[in-house]
Amino acid sequence: MMNAQETQDMLAAMESDKSGGKTSFWTPDEGENTIRFIPPLKPNKEVLPYFHHKVHWVDGTPYECVDQSFTDKNGNFHEAEPCPACKTSKKLYKLSEKDSEERQLAYDISAKDRYVFRIVDRKKEKSEQTTPEFYDVGPQIFKKFFNILKGGKYGNIVHPIEGRDYTIDKQGTGRRTNYDSSMPDPEKTSIFSDKEQLKEVLTKAVEMSYSSLIEFPKSDDLKVAVMEFLNPDATISGTSSGSKKTDNEDDDNIDYSSASGKIENTQSEKESDEVSGSDIDDILGEFV
Fold this sequence. Notes:
This protein is an alpha+beta fold. Strand 4 (70-71) and strand 5 (77-78) form a beta hairpin. The protein is 28% helix and 16% strand. Strands 1, 2, 3, 6, 7, 8 and 9 form a 7-stranded antiparallel β-sheet that branches. Strands 4-5 form a two-stranded antiparallel ribbon.
């Protein structure tokens, strides 16, 4: 007879099949979105509350830059190697003039910085908030996040007890999208006031390995993809790999999947009780 964990594993596998095996990223709606950043997790030996990597987008398809050393989703360690997309991009930059078509192509295929956080979406129903999500952002949101932490005014906003919720304020669309008004909440709150919910969200976050997001293309396939993009009429042997990007709405928010439906987030829904006690200390000692 299946136990609860086996049932959960089965449902997770079914969800993966339903989405074609692709990881769904949380996407902010237009306007204000309240989230909570999950801290770096001790069981995963993490120092940072995010994962930084570089991606090439070639003709709308994302390719992990092969000049990185990471463990991929299959548990295989990829040693950094010369990247054909980086090499071609640098060559185009060197040979092209400012504002030329070649300069734009050089930018298009250059490696883009991506930062993946684990977050809690406060717009979800209470029962669903204990399941964190991946949030993939670019430099604009990351720099805002970094400057807030560095400024010190709000303290350590990712702390599970003494931290703060964070309002992502998304204004505009496409390349004109901005997040300038995004800020932490004025008041400190815990992720959850209930210790069981706190333990549940941190336990699930530990199981969300960043390596599960990483799939490296073969260097030759990436080279073919770049050549076909730059010269679509050329006949090149070989096939390219990667999955078509669903929406390049803006550099900071790549929409890999549809966002959750809006649920009104009223003040009464916020966690206001302080979390304290030896049980909480034990949970923090285990995870943070």
